[in-house]
Design brief:
The chain has 2 domains: about 50 residues, Arc Repressor Mutant, subunit A (Orthogonal Bundle), CATH 1.10.10; about 170 residues, Orthogonal Bundle (Tetracycline Repressor, domain 2), CATH 1.10.357. About 60% of the residues lie in helices and about 0% in strands. The chain is mainly alpha-helical and about 220 residues long. It contains 10 helices and 2 strands. The model has no long low-confidence stretch (mean pLDDT about 85). A hairpin with a 2-residue loop joins strand 1 and strand 2. The protein has a two-stranded antiparallel ribbon with strand order 1-2. Helix 5 packs antiparallel against helix 9.
């Protein structure tokens, strides 16, 4: 009988890639090393992924989808934050890859469903439109990510891990309450530019020299 393809092969390849990337950085993420770690052949990996960048992108998109699935069904910001931190601790290797160079193409111009879901929950609580709360959501996201990375890299265990999780949740609640109380919260620096849009795929914009540069990425993508 002919050998049947492994239905979980792509998952094994991506899991192997996330482990190698977490342990040795991008330099350790060769197609041959991934094939060996996934117990398959190098040509098999190349059949599915063009190069290392393609492999990293696939890993990022899969992890992004998994994180969004973990947040699915949450109806409050506090619940969403808790699940976010729980996901990071359950999938530390994949989580670390998810935000590596997140502010550069192509990640910058991909959908950020978890960011948008949490921002939606924030909007439900504070009112207004989602983009009005991007700056606050960025602060909350930075707080959660910083906590997650400290727990992962610091190998925090209970009771410290529990205290770190709840300290993060408490700080997030303070930020949201202060924003609601003062109708905008404390803000240093300029107001959030209208054409600085994050997490909305092709609608996303990034400022370079005062101009939105999303069009540059699209133009290069069409020429590729």
């Amino acid at each position: 009988m002919p050998r049947q393809p492994d239905p979980k092969l792509e998952e094994k390849i991506l899991e192997a890639a996330s482990r190698l990337r977490a342990r040795g950085g991008e330099e350790a993420l060769t197609m041959r090393a991934v094939a060996k770690a996934a117990r398959t052949t190098t040509p098999t990996v190349y059949e599915r992924y063009h190069d290392r960048a393609d492999l990293i992108r696939a890993l990022r998109l899969r992890t992004r989808a998994d994180l969004f699935a973990a947040l699915h069904g949450t109806t409050t910001l506090a619940e969403g934050c808790q699940r976010y931190l729980d996901f990071a601790m359950r999938h530390p290797h994949a989580y670390e890859v998810l935000y590596d160079k997140f502010a550069e193409p192509p990640s910058l111009y991909e959908p950020w469903p978890s960011f948008n879901h949490l921002r939606h929950l924030l909007t439900q609580r504070l009112g207004g439109a989602p983009r009005q709360h991007t700056r606050l959501m960025l602060a909350l996201w930075s707080l959660m990510h910083g906590t997650a990375m400290l727990m992962i890299r610091g190998r925090a265990v209970d009771p410290l891990r529990t205290q770190m999780r709840h300290a993060c949740l408490d700080a997030a609640e303070v930020l949201v309450r202060e924003n609601a109380r003062s109708k905008g919260g404390i803000r240093s620096g300029p107001a959030w530019p209208r054409n600085l849009i994050l997490g909305e795929a092709e609608e996303s914009r990034v400022l370079r020299g005062g101009k939105a540069a999303a069009y540059e990425f699209r133009r290069r993508k069409k020429l590729a």
